[in-house]
Amino acid sequence: MLKSKTICFNLYIFLGTCFSGVVYADSFFNPNLISNIDNEVADLSRFDKGEGQPEGMYSVEIYVNDEYVETKNLIFYESDASSDDTGLLPCIDNKTLTNFGITLTENSKKKSEEVESKDSACENILDKIENSSVKFDFEGQKLFLSIPQIMFKNNVRGFIPPEKWDNGINAFLLNYNFTGRNSKNFKDNVDNNNYFLNLNPGINLGSWRFRNESSWNYASGESKQINGGI
């Protein structure tokens, strides 16, 4: 009897192995919880599968060859050419690249101008600059651009292009230095006093810069001296 049960049990295992099907399980979020109107329900499959991030405008810190450049609002679009898990690439025009100190070749400029002529098109930096790469750190909101060194202008480190210059704010400046000395001769009952004042006022008004340097000197028994210049 025991032998018969063992044979039946083994037979069940064999049959279950031969006729078992493939079952696939996946997470699902019912979009009707957001809206009960079929035409207004958004496609949430991208988020269910954890694939990338939504395209749009993001304020990101831009790093070129691991050096911080600026914080800027950029439009990101979905692209299969993206090398990170966001699935996004930034829209960067020629003017922005020039401000980064990057010099485009004539071939790259031509391609870029053809793209800019299309209202709905967005430029791909990977197409404009060979051997370049883009990485978007979505959590840190940082954009890393890797550009070949040959594409950069021969500018001195720290050089700021004239396009980024501004007049600054209107302001009044003042630096000063004052020193003094007192001495007394008890034998002759004479006091000696010496004072020196140096003033450096200035005014910033629009693109104008006014600077002045004045000094005042006083010594006991001597005439006062005042000097100044702009």
TrEMBL record:
Pfam family, one: PapC_N
This protein's GO CC annotations: cell outer membrane
Keyword DNA damage found: no
Domain PapC N-terminal: 29-179
Membrane topology note: Multi-pass membrane protein
Keywords: Cell outer membrane, Membrane, Signal, Transmembrane, Transport
Biological processes annotated in GO: pilus assembly
Subcellular location: Cell outer membrane
A molecular function (GO) term: fimbrial usher porin activity
Superkingdom of this protein's organism: Bacteria
UniProt-listed InterPro entries: Fimb_usher (IPR000015), PapC_N (IPR025885), PapC_N_sf (IPR037224)
Stated family: Belongs to the fimbrial export usher family.
Protein name: Fimbrial outer membrane usher protein
Protein encoded by which gene: fimD_8
